[in-house]
């Protein structure tokens, strides 16, 4: 319990951008393990709380399947249906229905689902840890290139503190609350301070050490998308020949 | 609380001493966050309460639908009375049919039962709006603050990220007037006043945080807006030049 309280205190310090919290993490005996534990604690706490909010939202939202039918039946009473020539009506309505169902299929992904919220208790820490490992490694490489002094464990420990703004998601205990992109941008600022303090970088170098991993990952995603797209076009081209 | 009130008063009066003290404070960022949360929450509670009362006091669905039908008919009549082409009776009937079908869809969705009764949804939504309101404002403040910080650094600014965000957070103080946004006419004017006053305080915050004169502070404040506009203009000129060839 004392450990959790100590972690929360550290999180609060990191959240309010206090340099001493990042320095404390950097100088702790095992910053990597501390960082890992911190991320897992935050992710599980937020996911557990989100279950309550999701259940309440589900309990106050009309069933999407019934909404889908109500809208379709209403659409069928609209004048445009009678404009379709009777001979083609069945075929045209069949095509429209298929596209309509596809659209609702996408919409249903945004419906509150308590089961998914329960699964998130397991998946959310995994995704957060993977993201932290990838970002931390790239940030460490760039920080070292820019003259950084920290060990890899210290970089990981300090960047783990950037998970603190995710605690704002505790408000999802209440349904219909949204923090939007705030946690992301706040985490970015925390990462900047983490790298600045861990590697004792100047503000300009810390800025680049924070931004370059993100730019690299974005570039990678763009290249993979282009590569994937070209491969699909090639495959389609070959099958058409 | 007293500290926050003192900060608010100093910000409204553009008191340099208040800005300087805040900049020198060890917990400058924390104070900024507290100020933004407090004011956004006050505004959020006021607007959510008004929205909730309006929703609860709204007329029955049948009455609302009747009013909507009347509104559509009036709009169609007005189109003709303002010199528009005479509306074909068939077309008029078709528009009315679409409106009827739309209202039927709306009423059928409203009738779908939920595990918790309908007022619970409205109550949760009102609470959700009030609680979420500080986050929206904080996102805008942090996002734009970061861009202005980069611009200020390019112009030779000296502030840390904490000082920059802390000093510019004072812009939120006049926005307490947004709580009166529901008052017809006056609400809009008060919001406009809060917006302009907020910009002036923001510029002062940038100037104090970075030890800038006002011209540099205004430039740092505007650069994040001007750069994308400039780039868009260049892009448009290039596209036009290419098309013209």
Please characterize this protein's 3D structure.
The complex is a heterodimer of chains A (241) and B (245). Chain A folds into two domains: 2-58 and 126-240, no CATH class; 62-108. Chain A is built from ten helices and no strands. The longest helix of chain A has 38 residues, at 203-240. Chain A has helices at residues 2-15, 19-27, 31-59, 64-76, 79-83, 86-108, 114-145, 152-160, 182-199, 203-240. The radius of gyration of chain B is 25 Å and the shape is extended. Chain B has helices at 2-12, 16-24, 28-56, 61-81, 89-111, 118-154, 161-168, 186-210, 214-244. Chain B has a domain at 2-41 and 132-244. At the A-B interface, helix 3, helix 4, helix 9 and helix 10 of A face helix 3, helix 5, helix 6 and helix 7 of B.
- Discrete helix count of chain A: 10
Q: Name the largest protein-protein interface in this structure.
A: A-B, 41 and 40 residues
Biggest sheet architecture of chain A: none
Q: List low-confidence stretches of chain A.
A: none
- Average pLDDT of chain B, rounded to a whole number, is 89
The structural class of chain A is mainly alpha
How far do the termini of chain B sit from each other? 65 Å
The description of the largest β-sheet of chain B is:
none
Reading the helices and strands of chain B in chain order gives: HHHHHHHHH
Oligomer: heterodimer
Order of helices and strands of chain A: HHHHHHHHHH
Radius of gyration of chain B: 25 Å
In a few lines, what is going on in this structure?
The complex is a heterodimer of chains A (241) and B (245). Chain A is an all-alpha fold.
């Amino acid at each position: 319990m004392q450990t959790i309280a100590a972690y929360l205190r550290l999180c609060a310090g990191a959240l309010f951008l206090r340099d001493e919290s990042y320095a404390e993490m950097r100088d702790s005996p095992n910053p990597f393990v501390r960082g890992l534990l911190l991320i897992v604690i935050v992710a599980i706490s937020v996911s557990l709380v989100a279950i309550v909010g999701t259940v309440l939202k589900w309990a106050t939202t009309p069933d999407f399947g019934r909404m889908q039918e109500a809208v379709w039946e209403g659409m069928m009473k609209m004048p445009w249906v009678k404009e379709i020539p009777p001979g083609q009506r069945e075929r045209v309505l069949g095509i429209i229905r298929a596209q309509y169902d596809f659209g609702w299929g996408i919409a249903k992904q945004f419906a509150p689902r308590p089961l998914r919220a329960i699964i998130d208790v397991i998946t959310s820490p995994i995704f957060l840890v993977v993201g932290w490992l990838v970002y931390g490694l790239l940030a460490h490489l760039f920080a070292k290139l820019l003259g950084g002094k920290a060990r890899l464990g210290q970089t990981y420990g300090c960047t783990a503190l950037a998970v603190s703004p995710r605690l704002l998601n505790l408000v999802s205990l209440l349904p219909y609350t949204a923090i939007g992109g705030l946690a992301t941008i706040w985490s970015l600022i925390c990462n900047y301070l983490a790298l600045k303090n861990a590697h004792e970088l100047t503000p300009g170098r810390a800025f680049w050490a924070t931004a370059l991993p993100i730019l690299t990952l974005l570039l990678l995603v763009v290249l993979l998308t282009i590569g994937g797209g070209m491969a699909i076009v090639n495959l389609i081209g070959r099958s058409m020949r | 609380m007293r500290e926050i009130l003192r900060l608010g008063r100093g910000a409204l009066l553009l008191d340099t001493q208040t800005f300087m003290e805040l900049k020198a404070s060890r917990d400058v960022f924390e104070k900024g966050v507290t100020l933004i949360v407090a004011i956004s929450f006050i505004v959020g509670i006021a607007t959510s309460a008004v929205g909730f009362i309006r929703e609860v006091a709204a007329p029955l669905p049948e009455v609302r639908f009747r009013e909507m039908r009347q509104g559509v008919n009036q709009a169609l009549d007005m189109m003709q009375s303002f010199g528009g082409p005479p509306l074909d009776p068939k077309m008029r009937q078709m528009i009315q049919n679409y409106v009827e079908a739309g209202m039927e869809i709306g009423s059928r969705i409203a009738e779908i039962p939920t595990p918790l009764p309908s007022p619970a949804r409205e109550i949760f939504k009102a609470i959700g709006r009030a609680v979420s309101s500080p986050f929206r404002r904080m996102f805008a403040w942090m996002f734009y603050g970061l861009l202005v910080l980069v611009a200020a650094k390019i112009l030779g600014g000296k502030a840390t990220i904490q000082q920059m965000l802390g000093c510019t957070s004072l812009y939120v103080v006049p926005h307490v007037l947004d709580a009166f946004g529901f008052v017809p006419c006056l609400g809009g004017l008060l919001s406009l006043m809060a917006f302009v006053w907020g910009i002036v305080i923001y510029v002062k915050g940038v100037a104090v945080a970075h030890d800038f004169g006002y011209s540099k502070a205004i430039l740092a404040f505007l650069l994040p807006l001007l750069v994308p506009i400039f780039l868009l203009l260049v892009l448009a000129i290039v596209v036009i030049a290419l098309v013209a060839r």
